[in-house]
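Revision sheet: structure tokens.
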Amino acid sequence: MSEPNLPFSILNEDGSCPERYRALLNDADLLAIHDMILFSRHFDRRMMMLQRQGRLGFYMTSTGEESTMIGATFCLKPDDPIFLSYREIGCLLWRKVDLRLIMNQLIGNSRDLCKGRQMPIHFCFREWGFPSVSSPVGTQLPHACGYAYAARELATGQVCLAFLGEGTASEGDFHTALNFAGVFRVPCIYLIRNNGYAISTPEAAQTAAKSLAARAAGYGMPGLQVDGNDLLALVNAMRWAVARARDGEGPTLIEAMTYRMGAHSTADDPSAYRSEEETARWAKVDNLARLEHHVRWRGLYDEARKQEALARHEETVRALIADSECWPPPPLDSLFEDVFEHANAHLLEQREEYLRFLAWKARRRAGEMAEAARG
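Predicted:
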């Protein structure tokens, strides 16, 4: 992915837009989305620092792709479920998931609702419409399709949104979900964050199709390819897809062309497979910078407001980190909880054996320390 490939766009280079698109977002919504993208990026930066300091085990940023997640979530109702992959933290932020719950899950402390059993960023917040994130890519797509089918049968009026990366479009679950969705005309939107790389594998090595959106025709649904770094273009496409889903017209596939500005994860080194020149070219069309040009063009933003926001976001994140790090890890014997509704004798025996092992290990460690102290 050597050159920025940005198809349908609305925002011009100077932040202006055609007058007919200006009403897509009113001033209040536009500023709220911009502020949330700014927070998401700052949060990513601080979490990366935390991981590099050894205080967080793992993390994946969404830097460069924030408009795709936050813009799409903005277009939904609060009870519309969103089936995430593992990079869409912006969806949680827009839906106002309690930031302490997010931070506790990342740390995996005793306040983590998942009791430290999930990897960081593998969220599950049912109250806000987020089923559990799973590491194997694509598993969320049939789940979203099934939920949407049930919503159609029960006439709940809900629309499902499922995120995926372009690499996931090579998985069998992609075909299974979209084929079923097209046949049964379920109210589901499949949104591909095409950031160019499936970890280190470029899109060109994954498909010979002219675009991933073009595949939609084979499943009997419309496919749209939009500039994912253009918030207005993304909102325009999402609103169209949501409206047709609610009207019973079935699913839509949206391919949002964007770019992952950082590494795939904290375990990845992108310099091994892409050049600095490529990253620099994409940085010129970064979604946050383009959105900032737009809010300034509308006369809604200036440097003083930006600095105030950055200071506010830093204070928020600093307080979150301090609060989450003051809680201990989940108790080790909690490993045996939630396996069965009522623990059977075999499980209780395993638990007691494990506790005896921990006690023996503690005594051995204490003895070694005493021996060392005696010299």
